[in-house]
Amino acid sequence: MGPAQRIAGGVSSLRARRRRRSEDRFAERFATQFAQQWSQVRADRRASEPPEIQAGASNFNRAQVPWGVDVAAAWSWRFLVMVGAGYVLLWLLARFAVVTIPLVVALLIAALASPLVDLGDRVGLNRKLSSLLVVIGGLALVSLLLTFVGTQVARGASELADQVVIGLGEIRTWLREGPLNASDSQINEYIAATQDLVTSGNDEVVARVTEVGTTIGHIVAGFFIVLFATYFFLADGARIWAWLVRLFPRAARMRTNTSGQVAWKSLTQFVRATVLVALVDAAGIMIVAAILDVPFVTAIGVLVFLGAFIPMIGATLSGSVAVLVALVEHGWIVALLMVAGVILVQQIEAHVLQPFLLGRFVSVHPLGVIVAIGCGVLVAGIAGALIAVPLVAALNAVAQHLSDYPGGSEESGTEVVQVAEGAAGS
């Protein structure tokens, strides 16, 4: 093969390679365009179909608030729930006050008289019989005291009435000749205004005759509830408490049982301390009245003793009776001396007896006593003042007991069931 032929063959092979390269580029461009068009067609087809739902992990995050705000909010809604529950409970107690107040009074009486029933058990007397004897004896004692007071007042009623007339005359003379220098016309106007006030009040009193009758009915019903409840609390108190303990979950029965025992002990100590304070108040005011030659000394002492069961204010209110009797019987000077005597007795009670007895036996601060009485008066009047202090004493004792409690378990729950069943069988 000559050189010309070799050159021609090289040129033809070069052209063939170029042609194949161009064909390959065309095929590649065609494949790329076809793939793009096919992808576009599939995308348009999918756009007309409903979207697919893809499941996966939640991306929800808790709101990021400061730690103090979170804690305050948690305390706030729990506090509101507790206040609401307490309000509903107080409303129910007030709604059924005709039953609840006598039951609480019976519980206080049972706490006072339980040592006598326990003494009957130790000497071999049947508990139900000893409870009946204690209730009847207590009722007879109170009846004798009130009868004695009524008899003493009835005997001196005529003399006391004469003294009241004389005392009113002295008041009239003091208004005319004293620092007020009131004229007879002014005094008569004051008297007429007082009579008009009393007369206008009579219409309202007459309009409330039905309410008075209802109140008397409630008092009679409450009296019998107190009698029967006191007897059953003394005779079957262990069975009643065992039944109440069984209403709680098993894990909480031991704490409930021990808390009830602590509350009962605190209540018993409070009632005993109150009796001692009442005796000292009555004896002190009787001594002052006897020294000042005030009539009805024994009757005044009985009233002070019974009134002292209303904490802080009962002895003062009943002691004011002695001041009025001294005013009517002997005049202003003796009345002022009687006021000084009542204040002296109250100071001894407030600074010696109350801190020593209540602080030692019940562990309630005097400020707590005052606050409890104020809240009790606002909620339930005189009955609230009577109930508030023993309730606070019991709650304080239970709170201290639970704060020192080691903890509960299923074994403790089994143990309290045995305790309750043993109490029920006694």
From TrEMBL:
Xref: InterPro entries: AI-2E-like
Keywords carried by this UniProt record: Cell membrane, Membrane, Transmembrane, Transmembrane helix, Transport
Listed name of the protein: FIG01121868: Possible membrane protein, Rv0205
Sequence similarity: Belongs to the autoinducer-2 exporter (AI-2E) (TC 2.A.86) family.
Membrane topology, record value: Multi-pass membrane protein
Region Disordered, residue ranges: 1-22
Keyword Protein transport: no
Gene Ontology terms: cellular component: plasma membrane
Transmembrane segment boundaries: 67-90, 96-117, 129-150, 219-249, 270-292, 298-324, 331-348, 368-395
GO biological process annotation, one example: transmembrane transport
Keyword flag Transport: yes
Subcellular location: Cell membrane
Pfam families: AI-2E_transport (PF01594)
